[in-house]
Fold this sequence. Notes:
Layout: H1 3-14, H2 16-36, H3 39-140, H4 142-145, E1 151-156, H5 158-165, H6 171-178, E2 182-188, E3 191-199, H7 205-220, E4 225-231, H8 236-244, E5 248-251, E6 254-255, H9 256-259
Parallel strand pairs: 3-4, 4-5
Antiparallel strand pairs: 1-2, 2-3, 5-6
Amino acid sequence: MNTFRIYEDLRTSLGEEAAKSLAHTLGPMFEELSKTVTKADFHELTAAVDRLAESQDRTDVQLAKLTDAQARTDVQLAKLTESQDRTDAQLAKLTESQDRTDGQVSELTRAVQSLVSQGERHAARLDAVLGSTFELQFRDRLTSYLGRLMRRGRLLRNDEVLDAIEQAVDPDEADEVLRVDAIASGIIDGVASHVVAEVSATCGVDDIDRAARRAGILRKAGLAAVPLVACKVISPELRSYASSKQVRIWCDGTMLDAAA
Length: 260
């Protein structure tokens, strides 16, 4: 077997360059072997070369399959990358939209808080106006409102009462008497007495406590005094609390304790 024959046999399966290189290597070997080996050995060597060429063919087929699989993998990876890019873009849009929504919610929250604050201020002013109006109305009609509690009632000026008690109380107590909402004198249960009234549209614990404390100052000075809370609204719990403090209640035109 000469070098050209080897080259021709291997060129198709191995390619031109590989076949040429192998032929140059095997040619002299075959020449040398033809002088030293048997014909059977030579045929066996030739068969080995054929098997080598066949194995190379199978390797090329497998390599082609791997290359095709890699190409499909690259396509799938490209699709996944493209899909991820779209997902990232959508997420960015959603994040931007959420940021705008959060900003709008914050603005709305501030606007609502401002409205609530304004409403609370208006409500406080309205309560103050209503409270002042109710107090003036009660003072103006005190003797008729308290007709079932006090007979021959007369509204007193706070400084009048102060003149009568100032020597018997300390300065802080004197100031307390000057802050009483209304003080009236008259006959209560057959006894000359004073009504010390705290006036509030909605009765609170503080109103009850002030009435009890301020009536106590008059009693300290030797004057008979009855604490009273005048209101438009009072809860059942505060009615019980007032009763425990021996504070009378006038509520929206009715003496509650007298009615009971």
